[in-house]
Amino acid sequence: MRVRFRRLSVAGMGVALLVLITACGSDGAAPDYGPYSIVPGNNDFDRQPSLIRGIFAESLRLADHIAFPTDVDADLATVWEAGVSADEKGLHESALSAPQRAAARPFGVVGSFGVAAANRGEGVTGPPLKYLHMSLTAFRDERSAAAAAAEMERVDFEVSSENAPVAVDAFPAALSHWRPGVPSMGSLLAWKNVVIRVYAQLPDPDLGRLVDMVTTAYRKQTAQLSGFDAAAVPDVTGVPLDPDGLLTRLVRTGDTIADPKTFAAFGIRAYSALSGDPARTLTNYSGKGVTALAVSHNKSLYRMRDSNAATSYREWLADDPENSEYTWMRNVRDLTGARCSEATRPDPKSVQARRYRCVVTRGEYVAVVYSNTETDIRQLAAAQYAIMAGVR
User: Fold this and answer.
1) Which domains does the chain have, with CATH numbers?
2) Which first-to-last residue range defines the signal peptide (predicted)?
3) Alpha helices (H) along the chain
4) What average pLDDT does range 38-63 have in this prediction?
5) Contact at 8 Å (CB) between 306 and 363?
6) Which of 29, 48, 150, 284, by CA, is between 20 and 30 Å from 311?
7) What is d(CA 76, CA 151) in angstroms, rounded to the nearest whole number?
8) Dihedral, CA atoms, 260, 138, 103, 216, nearest 10 degrees?
């Protein structure tokens, strides 16, 4: 399994709605759930050991502690890539050389996540390139991480006879090198059971500035890792995808194979890291009270800090102008916690045709569901509302 992808727009993740709130009278009929079950889902996808799921889940756990490139340098505002960079076959991070990826494999990679950004877009001519790639790779235990970092540095250093070691005084355990005259520097630091990798590039081969950039990256990254549970992971096959039960609060409509776009649960920093503007996205989520979220095919769920934040977030979604225009439609019968709308034109930012959508609010949760038919969206929204009540 290879899980790696480019930027996701904030609009695509925010699931904005432009709706008018309308109420509907009740005729006493039972809710229409159509083909959907209103029995809360279970975590069957987490019950059986799975190497694929476990590495993916551990990678997302790392992602919730990744430092953003703009934390290091405000100029690094254009994300080139971000995502899970390990699977059951080992590391597949593009910024690592093939010898480095092979060197890490015997030490037991249990997860990896990386993000890269620059001061301009890929292939765009402009100011001299400033670039930073940062990744976190977890190993079974601290000893494995330290040994893996040493071996990865050794094989990469030996790629060229011109490579020279570089000291990073603030982090004496860091293993670093550069090629004199080339404006880039690579560095590895074992932190408990995690290996932090930094690759920095500047317009000029100024070693002092490169060391400063790497030093700042390590300071920001170790600070973000301060709350990370670095306990040994002897068996990654048991790491759960959904420890907080968010996915069980969504109507089950597809398979349960872990995937960042179709079936996953995230902390808000991890999900923000996948956007084109991680810092702004994170500020938006935290400021509005989002504490975690999940995606499941044509649905998404936001856990808010309380019910008041949930109501406010519903209204914010209604006013966000970054998606296609929507117009109000008759609400689902007896479902005061739902607001539904119909697209007036296709959304050019969505690869899926999503003509109808409803935002469903109950307690401290907000769910957004999509469909291409009006009858189905009403049934899906009603079932989603019922399930959100059943697991409270």
Assistant:
1) 10-43+244-390 (no CATH), 51-227 (3.40.1000)
2) 1-29
3) 10-14, 44-47, 51-63, 69-72, 98-104, 142-157, 207-224, 268-273, 278-288, 307-319, 374-390
4) 93
5) no
6) 29
7) 30
8) 100
Encoded amino acid at 16, one letter: A
Query: Residue 244 has which token pair?
Result: 């907080």
Average pLDDT over every residue of 118-132: 87
Cα–chain-centroid distance for residue 308? 25
Concatenate the DSSP letters of all residues of 155-201 into one string.
Answer: HHHTT-TT-EEE--TT-TT-EEEE-TTSSEEEEEEEETTEEEEEEEE
* Whole-number pLDDT of residue 334: 65
Please report the pLDDT score of residue 72 as a whole number.
98
Residue 201: which residues within 8 A CB-CB, separation 6 or more?
129, 130, 131, 132, 183, 184, 185
Give the closest residue to 82 by CA, choosing from 277, 316, 282: 277
Note if the pTM is more than 0.85.
yes
